[in-house]
Design brief:
With about 160 residues, the chain is mainly alpha-helical. It has helices at about 10-20, 25-30, 40-50, 60-65, 75-105, 110-135, 140-145.
Length: about 160
């Protein structure tokens, strides 16, 4: 785009105006404006390299690529797994309440309907628990991961909804 500009001084002045006004909130948060010089790959790749030059690898990237960990062995995988287990436990408690309600019903048709729903959800829950068990990291691998190949990336603290 900049290769087609006839008055470079005017174009630079307008870019500065945009950076100072319309784009100011973005620029204040670390965004930057790059000039695409010509309709060619070299200019495009220069912009892309500028985006990644100062970037630190994410902990997940480092764990997956550098340390050849499986997703369930990464910090993100373990956090996701523990949250998923918590949600499954809550669902199991809800199912238990559903079963108690089914037993307490005086209407046999409604009780059968609630029991059928309980059985369906319980089967689905058991299947999910079985999948989680398959994803667990064996003790010997956990020990190996603990002693070897420490990550260099900083841990990102995230506040997930409870």
């Amino acid at each position: 785009m900049w290769d087609k500009v006839k008055d470079r001084q005017l174009a630079s002045s307008r870019a500065a105006q945009l950076e100072g006004n319309l784009w100011k909130p973005l620029m204040d948060k670390g965004a930057r404006h790059e000039r695409f010089l010509g309709n060619n790959r070299a200019s495009a790749w220069e912009i892309v390299r500028g985006l990644t030059a100062d970037a630190e690898p994410l902990l997940l990237q480092e764990e997956l690529v550098d340390f050849e960990r499986r997703l369930n062995e990464t910090t993100a995988g373990r956090a996701t797994n523990s949250q998923f287990q918590r949600l499954l436990q809550e669902q199991k408690e809800t199912i238990k309440q559903l079963q108690e309600e089914a037993k307490a019903q005086k209407d046999p048709a409604l009780a059968r309907e609630l029991q059928a729903e309980y059985d369906r959800i319980e089967a689905q829950l058991q299947k999910t628990w079985d999948e989680i068990e398959k994803e667990k990291v064996p003790l010997t691998r956990r020990i190996g991961l603990f002693f070897f190949k420490k990550t260099r990336a900083r841990k990102l603290q995230m506040n997930l909804p409870q």
